[in-house]
Predict the 3D structure of the following.
Amino acid sequence: MSLNYSDNEMMAISAGRFIKDGDIVFAGTGVSMLAATAAKRIYAPKAVVFFETGGIDPSLDEIPMAVSDLRVMSGTCLNSGLIEAFSIVGHRKLHTIAFLGAAQIDKYGNLNTTSIGNYFRPKTRFSGSGGACDVASFASGVITFMQHEKRRFVEKLDYLTSVGWYKGGDSRRKLGLVRGGALAVVTNLGVMGFDEKTKEMYLDQYYPGVSIKTIQENTGFDIDVSRAKEAIPPTEEELMILRNEVDPQRLICKA
Amino acid sequence: MSLNYSDNEMMAISAGRFIKDGDIVFAGTGVSMLAATAAKRIYAPKAVVFFETGGIDPSLDEIPMAVSDLRVMSGTCLNSGLIEAFSIVGHRKLHTIAFLGAAQIDKYGNLNTTSIGNYFRPKTRFSGSGGACDVASFASGVITFMQHEKRRFVEKLDYLTSVGWYKGGDSRRKLGLVRGGALAVVTNLGVMGFDEKTKEMYLDQYYPGVSIKTIQENTGFDIDVSRAKEAIPPTEEELMILRNEVDPQRLICKA
Amino acid sequence: MAKNAEISDKLMTLEAAVKKFIKNGSQISLGGFTIVRNPMALTYEIIRQGIKDLHIVCHSHGQALDVLIGAGCVKRLEIAYGGSGRYAPTCIRFKKAIQQGQIEFEDYSNYQMSLRFLAGALNIPFIPTKSGLGSDLLNYEGFSKEVRKERKVASKKFDMIQNPFTEEKDDVVLLPALNPDVTILHVQYVGEDGTIRIKGLTFADIEQAKSADYVIVTCEEIVPRSFIRLDPDQNSLPPFFVDAIVKVPYGAHPTGCYGFYDYDPKHLNMYRVIAEDDEKFKKYLDEWVYDIKTHEDYLNKVGAEMLIKLKANPILGYAVGLDRR
Amino acid sequence: MAKNAEISDKLMTLEAAVKKFIKNGSQISLGGFTIVRNPMALTYEIIRQGIKDLHIVCHSHGQALDVLIGAGCVKRLEIAYGGSGRYAPTCIRFKKAIQQGQIEFEDYSNYQMSLRFLAGALNIPFIPTKSGLGSDLLNYEGFSKEVRKERKVASKKFDMIQNPFTEEKDDVVLLPALNPDVTILHVQYVGEDGTIRIKGLTFADIEQAKSADYVIVTCEEIVPRSFIRLDPDQNSLPPFFVDAIVKVPYGAHPTGCYGFYDYDPKHLNMYRVIAEDDEKFKKYLDEWVYDIKTHEDYLNKVGAEMLIKLKANPILGYAVGLDRR
């Protein structure tokens, strides 16, 4: 049987599968919020979803449209603030996984959410770091959501907002960032991992119906595809939970 | 008509008279708590009494026996914590007056609440700084309560816990403490001020029935008495409020 | 004591509060976050009074910031994030202003900005962090040397030192404290004694308020002293940090206010489209800001039907089932 | 979900909690302040288990600290204030131990210690302050060079640097972060979901909990999830910072617990006298610690009459009219 599902649904499910019970999951807006909530409802009931604004473990009966959404303050175990939230992300006692989005990514998983072109007079200005730089500095691992396009998977970022594996190898640790780094990149075409030693991006999973060649063509740098396997599509149950429980208003699932 | 009153009552009244409307008053235990509460009830109804533990403007229907007393948490405008409290003491926007006590004081109003004798193996160990050092660093002015004895008013402190005018003149400012300093010393014999220029202690008021000579004999350094005047004793109304409203259980007044 | 007697010297109109505390060139910190508890009524009044050359310092801001930039009130900006969640992942007028070189800007992260407010609140000149090591946040200074000499601007974006408590290499970033001229907040409750109570997330509002020279607060309700002092564990700020209080129900619209009303999806969607077009944006300002005489006019313009739709469920804190597309 | 299922792995006895998390030589931070919310039941259990060589880090502590020192559990101490308010302006066993050279000690101030916990909680290696400039707190290091090499001891008491954001002379003190092995707290409420709610003043409990490797919490009540999640603005710590939970009603006696019971003036006065005499103190420990088999025994020893006298007025939070002489 073949099921219909949207890109966002496949991405949310792919990312959600990385979450383990007990993980503290940092969620942003959009598909990242979908993935975090899905992870808790499907794979890791003991995971805790929280937001940089200070909302910890909200009931999320409706999906928030911003990290400051009133829905992020409802049924939580604690309503705090930004400083509290970021000190949680970096807490050595906690295993924190962060979901981020970005405009550009390089092969070491470094992210740009600031601007394209000259920094001082950019061609396109984006929102800026928000909490992304902080989370990339402190979390135990970062999973990034990307539209898989050549102009987004680039050899060199126009601006490095959030550090992934920096220049590869142990360069991140040498900066003084004692843990964390890019765990995976989840796109509309597949899932990328990072080599344990070189910290270079490789193709881990391609979605059903997507060819490896398509992924290579949409990546702006050479990417190792030797370890690629086909991704497991969402199950009926996963989709049902996603649509009926996580995003009953279909605000993000539909895209 | 002559009224009977205790040393603590005279001290509380003398100190309370320094408080102006709008002042934020930092209170400790004992006579300092009595003075702070009296100030608010008698002289400066718009003054705010608060405690280093984080209790701000409690109703103080009963007098607290410690700065952590449950009575410090009741009817407040805010129950916070230590960091909040000390950031209030030093807030540039606020005029904060602190009441402190000490075991030793020198002529520049520096205080010792740590120990007598060798620091590492003291003859007598006291409680330590608590918040005194912080408050002496940050408040707009400090009023210190002392038993007036030669061994307490000393040429050189055994340990300088809390900075007053440091070495006199502008030495306090040069340390990097941008405001504050010793405002007055209130003892069981009288009230001392500090010379505007040299910052040396002088006798400002002697209590009715106390001779200037007695004060000189009980002070371990030469003290300027040229500006001394007799203190105004507590009025009947002041005593009534102190006894009936501030300390109805007579826990501190009696001493 | 007569009702509100304790705060009679602080209670004032929007007009008076802005006139008294906000000048051309003031450094202003905005309360709230993206689409929640933005001090919109105050923002509109700042625009109406034609205040210019503001230096805005904020973490993640959406609606209030974007309207201020669009109305030409902002000269200088220190910011972590300019966006309105799903309604405008990047704020439109903010984006345009930077792309067209119309404002001086300096990028920080959310934690960095929050810590800078904390340092200001604690009255310390800087605060350490490890956030941003290796990032371009620490490679590019947005402000020029000339700007760095102006009042309320830090002498440098950050400093980096070796941790003096270890002999191993350990770089630590020092961030300069922020002490804005004025912090403007919209909150749920102010007590008759002047105590502030924010419900739901506080973001960095408390640090922002304590770091500022002056604080203007608009609120949904002024509540009895007996109420606000019954459970002081819940309160957010003591009275003495607040300099002006204005009661403005729905004062955060079109952003939300936990326990009172949701953000207005229709307005935010409309704004995103309009903000793209200079002419349409000008008309929007006329319609929603300049031509509004009183806050009652504003509420009538939003309309009773929408206000009721936005009304929050008092227990859950948001408008259940609101159409948010 | 079955009652307490969410915290079943954290719920344990006093005995198990101490056994699991506290070792000889552990660095322990004590919750509460002088005579309020001291984790006394945990303190007694530490003594009963014969734990030695503790390194205590605290701001202002009274009863729990003094009993631990008196029982010979403490080797090393970083402290701002050792006292029990009017009941013992300087704690007796603390005073004796220092005068007799029995413990290694290092003096800080309350703000300094609180900031050190905050730095630990924020995961930064140090935090700046101006407190203490010119004082002997910055002239005397209490710990020897040898002690400075041991685990959990800062490499130096403090550092002093020039503020890098100004060219004028501006000395700033840097205080080293604290990250104790274990923080022990007594609180009013723990939710069935593990959420912690402290009522009244929080002192530095929250920073202390977040700075520690492990946190043991004793509480007056375990309350339904539905209750603790209804108004999360009031909560103090999320579940994931807490490693062990023990329900111990009156677990802070003879210190007070806001909303539940007052401090016990009779006991505190009795203690001050007894603590002066080594023999009497030994007998006190036998009677109130070693010979106590269960917490119920302890409560019976305090006596129903006293427990009722100490009971707090639920609105005012303390025992109105209690004889506190």
About this structure: Chain D touches chain B through 70 residues (CB under 8 Å). The CA atoms of residues 224 and 230 of chain D lie 10 Å apart.
